[in-house]
Amino acid sequence: MGVLITACGGNPTSTSSPATVPSDLSISSFTADFSYMAKLKDLTAAGKGKVGVILPDTTSSVRYVQFDQPYLQKAFEQAGYKSSDFTIGNAQGQEAQELALAQADITNGATVLIMDPLNSTVGSQIQSLAQSKGVKVISYDRATFTGTSTYYVSFDNVQVGELIGKGFVQCVSDWGVKNAQVFELDGGQNSDPNAVSFAQGYNDAIWGKKVAKVDAGTTNTQGMKLVNEQVATDWKNDVGQTIFQQAYTANKAINATVEANDGLGNAVVTVLKSQGVKAKSIPTTGQDATPDGMANVLTDYQCGSVYKAVYLEAQAAVALATVLRANQTPPSGLVNGTTAPPSGQSGSQQPAILLVPIWVNKANIASTVTCGGVTSPSAG
Hints:
By secondary structure, this protein is an alpha/beta fold. The protein has eleven helices and 14 strands.
């Protein structure tokens, strides 16, 4: 017979039936109205400790402020967390601050950390710290392939790159670009393994080479030629803008471009507009479906963007944290895959939640991004 205990200000509850993971919990459970999260309230009540969330910055993508933070908060609240049960911090682009936030969260009783690491170095430091304290870690959106008791929540990154590449190839055709002279602006491959996977995806789709960098002068069967491919270190948009400004000044034959995210796409669009380039002339690409990116898509300066619905990612991360916090085993419908370091990089394979990305252009923006609330983080 279970023992009845009374929480302060609450009704008697029984300890005889421990909370269990809902049998239908999977990556398909989550919707824009966050309604599924209420099914996790029993697990939340059974869990121990706090959940600490650490976002990386406010500059590499506007998504962290406009979408991730409010969506994560909404997911926690709908799952029955009290405000004292979780924290959401932002490292403001500083490695030392990201590590300090993790240390503070653990000191204050976190049993699960959800972290989006600025880079592999600080990610590994946080995972090492968490491991030494028995704290479980969820790498959110960016993977760090070290440590134990670590999970990954994001989208299939090579597939994201494939969508960028396929969207670009179609756009070159749709916009009537002849003898495409292509410039590629990669994301922060120096610090983010995901950036390598993105490039592998779009280089495979465009050039038939599943590699992080393709040699200048490479051609494909559509008559395209690669002028150059360069990395915007640490995903810095100002670095990307300088790189493209110099490349385009030196070679006005460039008439098609590939960018790894909307921030870099917008950096290139800024240069093109300053040079008097008209809409629907030189393709650009991106991912994250940011407001700037969608504005560039709607005005025919960007072909499209990979929509990675943050409201899905946020719910998946909170659901996984809730299961782990209650010392339960995540179901295979939720943790539906694995992720491993890109070829040539060290680290170990990790269990992963891999969500499905979508290529968004003018034709389907209303049925995808707008419905998902790109301009309204509180949608639903």
